């Protein structure tokens, strides 16, 4: 029996499980010193990272050096939140059988609250104010960290990839849309309300293409994989003579042309596909110049599926960036690098964030 505090009934003292005493979430600004120390020390235990996409859920066991020791995947089960949770549990249990797992990190598209406990909104899944971390901790009986997928990828590139050692890093992920993350002085910068980094929704062309977010002219409508596919489809639908290779690749069905199709043709040397990629690269560079004026990073790391195009995309972006940069010729300029970790960046970053955050709180 324990001695009750005033107003408390006597009874057996309830002890919180050790893993529950480790409060998850991102380190606050006042903890910067201890945060860097924990990064330096690391944790030798393993973590599982889970990357939730619109079509698949990928998970992997990740060590303290960012190496993936084993992986597994499942199809994303529609938009049912409970079904997605069950898939996550199955993956963690499968991967955990052969390893001693310390913590689990979840990276998902959408807005998270500042404490990393709730998915406020996810564009691909039916999560609206979903208490995902609490649900998964109850099911997994392990510490769980919840983060935006772009934040997870940006963190991984800063820790282990193309942005390693950079004091002010901005990571851009180009896929269906455009995601973003900022790592400033060794910390993820998530803004006042936890929803920073939605760079794809800066309005770059007032009155332009309608965006899924409800606005018009968002950057991702001009510099994403979806934008590349849309421009190619419009060219093919007009039966332009320069689009014949595009149509041949999809057996004459213009509606089947995607950004992936255009990228593959561009890599094979098709001049029209390369021109379309160059257009997207120029829009990319313009948006990066806007971000440089606001954030002044040392490095931009460009990742996501569209970066399979490599320098065919990034070189036009560098030229447009230099051409549109505020104060060009009279100021240092950020470098623009391709991401190094590929499609695994999200799960690597989610795992590492969960390990670091858990170590700080243990």
Describe the structure in your own words.
With 362 residues, the protein is of the alpha/beta class. Helix content is 37%, strand content 19%. The chain has helices at residues 18-21, 32-41, 81-96, 132-140, 149-160, 225-237, 244-249, 259-267, 271-295, 311-324, 345-361; strands at residues 46-52, 56-62, 68-75, 101-108, 111-112, 119-121, 128-130, 144-148, 168-174, 178-184, 187-188, 299-303, 335-338. Helix 6 packs across helix 8 and helix 6 packs antiparallel against helix 9. The longest helix is centred in the last third of the chain and has 25 residues, at 271-295. The chain is globular.
What's the quick description here?
The chain has helices at residues 18-21, 32-41, 81-96, 132-140, 149-160, 225-237, 244-249, 259-267, 271-295, 311-324, 345-361, and strands at 46-52, 56-62, 68-75, 101-108, 111-112, 119-121, 128-130, 144-148, 168-174, 178-184, 187-188, 299-303, 335-338.
Features of the shown structure:
362 residues, alpha/beta, 5-stranded mixed beta sheet, 11 helices, globular, disordered N terminus
Biggest β-sheet: count, sense, barrel? 5 strands, mixed
Average pLDDT works out at 87
Low-confidence stretches: 1-42
Rounded radius of gyration (Å): 22 Å
Please indicate the percent range of residues in DSSP E strands (runs of 2 or more): 15-25%
Number of helices: 11
Give the helix level as a range of percent: 25-40%
Silhouette: globular
User: Termini distance?
Assistant: 26 Å
Oligomer designation:
single chain
Structural class: alpha/beta
**What spatial order of strands do you see in the largest sheet?**
3-2-1-4-8
Count of beta strands: 13
Order of helices and strands: HHEEEHEEEEHEHEEEHHHHEHEH
